[in-house]
Every structure is written in structure tokens, then in C-alpha cells.
Amino acid sequence: MSIQTHHADNGPADATNWWRQAAVYQIYPRSFADSNGDGIGDLKGIAAKVPYLKGLGIDAVWLSPFYPSALADGGYDVDDYRDVDPKIGCLADFDAMAAALHAAGIKVIVDIVPNHSSNRHAWFQEALAAPKGSPARQRYHFRDGKGEHGELPPSDWTAAFGGPAWSRVDDGQWYLHTFTPEQPDWNWDNPEVRADFLTTLRFWADRGVDGFRVDVANLLVKDLPAELPSKQELDAMDRTVGTHPLMDRDEVHEIYAEWRKVFNEYDPPRFAVAEAWVETAARRAKYASPEGLGQAFSFDLLLADFNAPQFRTIITDNLEQARLTGSTTTWVFSNHDVTRHATRYGLEPLNGRPGKPGVDWVKAGGPREALDVEGGIRRAKAATLLMLALPGSAYLYQGEELGLHEVADIPADQRQDPSFFRGAEYDGLGRDGCRVPLPWEPSGPSFGFGANGAHLPQPDWFAEYAASSQDARDTSTLNFYRQALALRHELQGAETLEWSGSGDEQVLHFVRPGGWHVVANFGPAAVELPAGRVLISSGGITDGKLPGESTAWLKA
């Protein structure tokens, strides 16, 4: 069976379609590299690592928020959308970093956070100082409370990180926040809000930014009638038809159509990818429309077990959705919000149980006896090599190229994630474990992250994963990623694949244009490879056989 996208004739990327099959590397700036020894990663630190990024072989970097912020939610509480946090640098540092990345042939994608500002944003501070019903308050969702004196919140809704979704201000009114109280939700029915975000998009595009990752892109538009539904009523509502009061409303695409006009003012047009946790693939496809953002994250592989039938179904379905939209699908295993996939694959599979993979293990404090450390990285490398062979964009998260596992045993008094402090069940002990600063050297106060310590504690076992140590080992995970990404550039052609029958339900085999074969063995026993020259393998080939839990690329 052959699968192709709408743009199946696309070959190597050009200036306009570079994103369609790009390898994008996510940088969490505060945890990447610290240039001044204050324990916090910064833009100069990123600029200093451009040779490393170029050598890795990526096409673009996506920067998680670097804006001024009190870090109530890791930088996703933005004080000023058109500036840089002084702890991370300044606009001149951003320009120098972007210039260095562009000189190395690497595109720059920045995070945009349009659902909410921080409570320190100038407009929210203006709203607090303004009276009820004022234009300043109309930029957010302010409401009178219930009860005899308005002492009760307008509804019983809960926030994503736990606790109520409404907070009271001094004059007795309440404001809506989907996440923490420090993150008041914008009112996207307000034309001032819409216009200001267009200004922000142009601000960064004028500075040479190539694209935008849109945080919780499905939440912006809200329908808040005079009498609000209860949480029970809200939870019972259909989320698949575009009419839910709080999420994935059809009207949100009017906003992104305006954004698309801005993106198309530039040559080449600016790129965007939506983070949209929606109920169906058809709903996700709306965000990937060429009249909208153009691409949307698929988290299907991220949520899957290391399981061949699951992978085949997900790959087939996502490529079909890409064909219908004219976009390309995205493939991702790890990011700043989830347990690292090397760890997830070292734990018992979910096998249909609800919840995010790895959360139960993190919640238990990360017991090492429950983790198959070597098996996890073996499966992670096999899955990643399979993913890098697929048509579409590959999104990598900083540190996965080092084979890093999740850091689960962070003391409570050193944690930073609001989901930990506010008791959000779905995140276990929070997301700090995938945000621990990277180990660049096998020794020193922060394993080469900076001259002093790191803002999150690094475990002793980081020493064996240090980039400098891996650089010298041909068989290291780092050099495996480098080889795979280099081959991906060399081999990548039209956005098609053709499945080939393997005769084994635990083996996936497909062929890409140009005659290169991809064989992924999810089972424990070695399997016979088809005839051809092995280009790369995540496991050693012996007598023409691919070991269990391994992937190989071959040229016929």
C-alpha cells in the first residue's frame, strides 16, 4: 500500500516549503546553556552552541518562551511579548543568536503564547487599576461573583494545574485563568487583543524569525454566557463539533486566517505550527489548513506504547490526514511537557490504560528498580530512527540526542513546576524532570551547563551522558543522532512511503522514494533483513539479522 501527501512531488526543501520535512530541535532556553554562570540558560549560551547544533544536523530550532516572566509556569506567563527576559539576555542578544543560527543554515521558530498573558503584563495591571466594566477589563474575562456579596466564583470550573479557574481581585470581581492565577486569559472577542498580537507577530518576523509555535492554539476563543455552565455540564459537552464553550471553537480559525495574512506578507511566508490538543484528527486538521497556521502537532506517537501495530495505525492515519489538508504531519516523542521517551520505553507499557505515559513512575519518585535503563534507550533509538525516516517534520527535544532519561527524584523544595505545587494529577510530580539543564561535560558544578550550579538539580548519573564524552565515541547516542540526521538529509525525497509486508506483526517495513528501505523490529527476537546495504542501524547487525527492538535503513 502506497501513502502520499497532497504535495507528494515535493523533493528537497526550498525557501518556501523548508518546514515540510524539517528536523526541528526544541530548546528550553533556561536549561540549554548558561553563558554567565548565574545558573540560568541564556541566549548567549545558545549562540555559543551553534556549532554543536549545526553538527547535529537539524534544520531549525524552536525556542520555548524567553520573554520577561516571573516563571509562574516556566516562562509561559508572559509579561511582555516583544522583549527578552533580562535573566536570559536582551533583544541585541536575540538578534546575534538568530544571525548565528541563520549563518549556520538553521531556521528560528519562537513560541507564541496567545491564550493568556502574565498577571504582570501592562494591560492586566491596567485592568486591575481600572473600574468594573472599563475597556481595560474588557481585554480579559472579568466577572462578578456569585453569592450574596459576590464572594463565590462565577462558576465551579477548575484550572488545568489544579485549583479554581477564577481568582478574585480587590474590588470583588473575578477573572478567568485556564492555567495558574498568574496567567489571566485574554478575551479574543476584543479587537485590541487581536490587533496587538498581529503587531507581535510582525515584530518577530521583522527580526528574521522564520516561524511560530502556537501554544494551546485551541483555547483562545470562549463563549461565556451570563449564566455559566457547571463543571459537570462542561465536561459532558461534545468537544468534536466546534461549539464547546472553552476549547476548539470554530471561531478560532478566523483568528488564524488573520495571522496567515500577516505570515504571507513576508517572502518567504512565515511558518506556524499549532499545539492543539483536540479530540479528533479532523479537528486537528483545521489548524493545519494553508489558510490558517499551516501545520499542527500530532502527539499520537508520543502517547503510544512501543508497539508495532499502534505505530503502523498512527503513521497511516496521520499521513492520510496530511494528504487531506495539504500539510505535512509532525512526529514527536519528547518535549518540555512530558516524560522523556527513553524513560517511557523503559517502563511497563500503558496497554490502553488512561493517562500520560511515564506519569505514574514520576509520581512514585522515579524508582530506578522499576526502570529498564538500557532497554529504554534501545527502544527510544529504534523508535527515533523509524520516525526520522517518515515523511513530514521531525521534532526533537533537547537532550534526547544524549539519550537522557527523566530526572524524577528532584527534592520538593527545589521543584519549580506549578502543576506540582497545585496538585495537578495528570502531571504526577510535575514536568521539571525533563527540564533539568543539559550535561555538556562529565564534571564541574553543573556538568558544563555553566560556570556555577544549575537552576534545577542535576543527578550524578548525568556525567556518563555528557555531550563532550559522547562526541569522542563513535557508538554514542549523540553520534547515532548525527549520522541519522545526515542520512535523512541525503535521502529525503518526495513525501511518500510504501508499506512492504514483513510477515511478522512485530516488524514494520516500508520503502521511501529512491529505494531506501526502513525495517523496524519491535519484537525481542532477531529478524532477517531484506537484501541491501545497511546505511544505519540502531542495533548491531549480525549475519544479516536485525536484533530485537532495533531499526535499520537499507539501500536496495
TrEMBL record:
GO terms for molecular function: hydrolase activity. It comes from the Bacteria. The keyword Lipid metabolism does not apply. Pfam families: Alpha-amylase (PF00128). Residues 26-435 form the Glycosyl hydrolase family 13 catalytic domain. The keyword Hydrolase applies. Keywords: Hydrolase. Belongs to the glycosyl hydrolase 13 family. This is Glycoside hydrolase family 13 protein. It comes from Pseudarthrobacter quantipunctorum.
